[in-house]
Amino acid sequence: MTSAPAVLVLEDGTRFPGRAYGAEGRTVGEAVFATGMSGYQETLTDPSYAGQIVVQTAPHIGNTGMNDEDPESRRIWVDGYVVRDPSRVVSNHRAVRSLDDELVEQGVVGISGIDTRALTRRLRDAGVMRAGIFSGEDARLDPERQLELVRAGAGMAGRNLSAEVSVAETLVVPAVGERIGRLAVLDLGVKASTLRHLSERGFEVHVLPQSVTLDELRALEPVAVFYSNGPGDPAASDGHVELLQGVLRDGLPFFGICFGNQLLGRALGFGTYKLPFGHRGINQPVLDKETGRIEITAHNHGFAVDAPVEGVVESPAGFGRVEVSHVGLNDQVVEGLRALDIPAFSVQYHPEAAAGPHDSTYLFDRFRAMVSDALLKEEGTDVPSDGSDSLPREPQNDPSDQSNSTEDTH
Question: What is the CATH number of domain 5-151?
Answer without folding.
Answer: 3.50.30.20
